[in-house]
Amino acid sequence: MLRSEHDVLVIGGGVAGLTLALHAAESRRVTLVRPASDDQGASRWAQGGIAAVLSPQDDFDAHVADTLVAGDGLCDERAVRFTVEQGPAAIEWLLSLGVPFTRDPSPDAGYPYHLTREGGHGARRIIHAEDATGRAVLDTLMIHAQAHPAITLRDDLTAIGLIGDALGQCRGARCLDADARPVELLASDTVLATGGASGLYRHTTSPQPASGEGMLMAAELGAALMNLEFQQFHPTCLYDPEGPPFLISEAVRGEGGRLLNARGERFMPALDPRAELAPRDIVARAIDAEMQRTECDHVYLDIRHLGDAAIRHHFPTIHAHCASRGLDIVAQPIPVVPAAHYSCGGVATDLDGASSVPHLHAVGEVACTGLHGANRMASNSLLECLVFARSCAGRLAERREPAQAPLSPWQPGASSVDRERLRAWRLGMRDIMSARVAIVRRDSGLEQAADALEQLASEVAPMVQQARPSVALASLWHALRLARLTVASARHRRESRGLHYNPDCPRHDDGKTAPKPSRIHLSNLPDEA
Q1: 395 is catalytic
Q2: Which of 204, 254, 377, 451 could bond 209 through an S-S bridge, CB–CB 3.0 to 4.6 Å?
Q3: How far apart are CA 35 and CA 444, in angstroms?
Q4: Which segments carry the region annotation Disordered (predicted)?
């Protein structure tokens, strides 16, 4: 088995991982494991932009207040204020690297770059690069990472597990190379930047969604996971059963897009005074209910009234992509449907990205910082990636310890993996989660999901013990156990709050104390105790 020693090991190469690497490399040597699939992950498909207080007409208190409202009483206000107050500096850093944000040419603009507004925000505070912000930021960060002498990029490896030592500390990661050969990377400090868990569901907004692999890898070492029940469904994914998923940005509604049902009627103004600009959980549930009421498998997002010039100016990527799929959004409303988009829960961390396991950090969607609470507000995600990656790098700069040997040598199995069987298992898991643990959950459905996932796990477990390791098998096993923990978290929360809506307990259950985040460990599964 190949084994090597490293200083800081970063697993994941989206915006969070690359930002962490660039800042940590100012004081330490960094190895970044970034499989080719990261190019199709959530960061690249982030269209809308980055929320930050940049306009003279905006202020920190307003951004904090909007975030707290969207989080439905479950945000950690300290984490919210920390993130919001660090936002302008993070944007200035991106500008210094050359990210091509869209400028505002109007002579009375209070800020040189165009700021748009999205759901839940009371002001225009979303800086963007046309409608392809994630791609612009990711490409810029990648150029700088490739040129940095203290950063080593490994695109030939995929992490499938973490390495622990006898003291319960993280000491690196177990990986597979392109030929499925095992490789161990020992590290003084390890940072997970592996993304969320939207891949647990059948329909997502990303072509290559993560399935919570990093969350479960951390849980295997004993890290606490938090708020897994709060899975965000983006209200507007392009409805095209025959084609790949494609997100229709929140900014489309921010610039005046209107939601219409199958009969061409607006339905949001009657449900919420903010109409189409209500937080995502409210809009997604409204669309889901309207689809059921009209017995239609989608609704429409209409921007025809904005006119050809405005549509092409603000949404060139969306316009071009829809045109490539036979849809002229200048002349036709866009068919849309909610799809799994963002995990508000994940590895519980502090404000520096530290988990409950020594020498293991998590940044980006894999982490749960307390910023999002029960529902992430639009465009706070890339902001969180930037702010917490920078703070985590600051913590890493203050200490370094040599990597130690793992607790026990890795002994992979020997039998082969049936790929079609793996595929069927994964589809089965996604169908269970989509049918029972999606936008609306009921007690009976959650019970059925728990039983079905436990049965599925009992079928997969023997193969995990006996088969040669593969990325597909490891990903499935991580995802399946995370799905079970998600169901357990949803069953434990006896209320409806934010993204977790259960008609069997439809009200907030605040009682005499403030609502609490839900923490869970892998040992909460009976067969993992």
Answers
A1: no
A2: 204
A3: 39
A4: 493-529
